[in-house]
From TrEMBL:
Pfam family membership, one: AMP-binding
Organism, scientific name: Actinoplanes sichuanensis
InterPro entries noted in UniProt: AMP-dep_synth/lig_dom, ANL_N_sf
All residue ranges annotated as the AMP-dependent synthetase/ligase domain in the record: 61-234
Annotated SUPFAM superfamilies: Acetyl-CoA synthetase-like
Protein's UniProt name: AMP-binding protein
Amino acid sequence: MTGDFFSSAALALETVRDTLAKLRSVPALTDRYADIVAVDSLEDLIHVPVMRKDELNLALDHLKPKAQHGATWTFQSGGSTGSPKLGYAPTGLYMAEVYEQWKPLGPDDLFVNGWGAGKLWGAHYLMGAYADLTGCTGIGLGAVNRTEYDVWLEFFAARGVTSIGGTPSVLRPIIGRAREIGIKLPDLRTVLWLGEAWNPGLDEDLPVVAPQARRWGLFGSTETWVVGTNTPQCADDTWHPLPSQLVHVGPDQLIDFTSLKPHGLNPVLRYQTGDAGAWVTCTCGVPDRALRVLGRRDGEVKFRGLLLNADALLREVATVPGVLQAQLVLTEYPARGSTCEVLVVPARDTPDGLADRVRDHVLGSAFGGPSTAFHRDPEALAVRATAALIHNERTGKVSPLVHRTAT
């Protein structure tokens, strides 16, 4: 590939022009795109301002996208205790293009879909649409809690499951439990993951539980849908973009995405998810350059497969009467994944039980958000009242979000 903006997709320039026209039709965004006189080539996208969630939400609220055929499916983007940010996709969720490039499953596979269903989350249905294309036999497992692991693992072994999919923070404790109780899954060949970075702990457990299993990943978001694919021969942070995705890495390493789907519903034009990246040569040997994702560079972090906006969650916690200050502490445990602890400083004369009230408030949020993960494992959420938040001893500064790794 040459140039900052390059695509071999058919009708790429026409699709970009159509998306720009849609965005200009949104009254709240007209001035934003007024200076873009013409887009004569994809390279002219360098003059188009980057888009973030607020702009995309304005566009979606005005345009109200509808699929040309079949249903228009609505899913939640990100995860917070506030109102959901929506994304749209037609029946099939664009997975036919993914299937052309990425084929971990075939007709002889028995696939366990371990992504949670409902609550406006899309991954379960995304992989269901993919499974439909492969002709495999599927099991819609969805979210399970720890008390169910043993019986399901015995079922997987008895049935000869060949593939399982889910976010790594969900898969790790399941596979770890199989190792702990001595259950083997000799028929398991593929582990599909989507929604967060690969968990290296799985590399420790899978050779013991399922020696033949190899990881296959997808990267994307509800706004962009699937951006790229990963195979066992790729590094776990490296992705091969789909033809319908125009990926640009800016000088600050922030990635922006432009949808080249002629009938795409989300008007994604230089959309920034907050991820940073770099162009690399992949270890798999595919000659085209690949995208290495370096992690997030904004206020949102991945927690158990969910996009958690720390600032939004803390604003929500602050609405609970008696909360003077609050702070999030995310701790990574090698064996069980992440936990979230909310530290709260009570205001003077606050009645006892503030921590319980805050926890109930988070779990009772209207659209789920982080509570989706906590329903799978309630012990992943803790709230603790404290006299002072974690701070820098030298400067006294308090960060709203603290990351820790358990040893």
